[in-house]
Amino acid sequence: MGFQRILAAIDYSPLSQVVFEQALELAKANQAKLMLFHSLSADAVTLAPAFPGEFGVSPQFISQAYQVEFVRLDEQIQQIQSVLHRFYNLAKREGVEAEYQYKIAEPGQGLCEAAQQWEADLVIVGRRGRKGLTEALLGSVSNYVLHHAPCAVLAIQSTHAYSEKRSPLPESAFSSTSLNQTSSIK
């Protein structure tokens, strides 16, 4: 069974390098298309109260807060574009047909929706290995994807070696981002 449409979940962790390498290797072996995908958690986009006067907050302060959030979101978008574009260019150099997409959504749900919309037959996602209370409090994107994806899922387990040795991306590239955007090559 060969995979023809592989979706790789890319975030700001150094584990994304390993996810990308596995996705690229499988895409080359199967002559498959590759989608590089990132999802920004919807709660990362701060919303001000609908009626600021009710809370004793000045409208000018709310306006400034919105401006700060828009600047922060724009910086995050530029960061994720840089990360995705770097991986995209690496895939292109290896002769793999690739595209990338990023959007605002809860990461697990966003990945599953992207996999369904793009008709992926494999999702590759990193797994940090959270367990117990930590997983219950922080959640697990990989666990969500394993249980809700419309296709096969390959979870890449995190190790300290991955985070220390393997990422060619600058540390500044690992923070948070997104909006809806797609780019592709052949």
What keyword list fits this structure?
Rossmann fold, single chain, elongated, alpha/beta, 6-stranded mixed sheet
List the helices and strands and how they pair.
Layout: E1 5-9, H1 15-30, E2 33-40, H2 59-93, E3 98-104, H3 107-118, E4 122-127, H4 132-138, H5 141-148, E5 152-157, H6 160-166, E6 181-184
Parallel strand pairs: 1-2, 1-4, 2-3, 4-5
Antiparallel strand pairs: 3-6
CATH fold description? Rossmann fold
Which percent band covers the strand fraction? 15-25%
Quick one: overall form?
A: elongated
Largest sheet: 6 strands, mixed
Strand arrangement within the widest β-sheet reads: 5-4-1-2-3-6
Fraction in helix: 40-55%
How many domain units?
1
CATH level 4 superfamily: HUPs
CATH class: Alpha Beta
Distance between the termini: 23 Å
Number of strands: 6
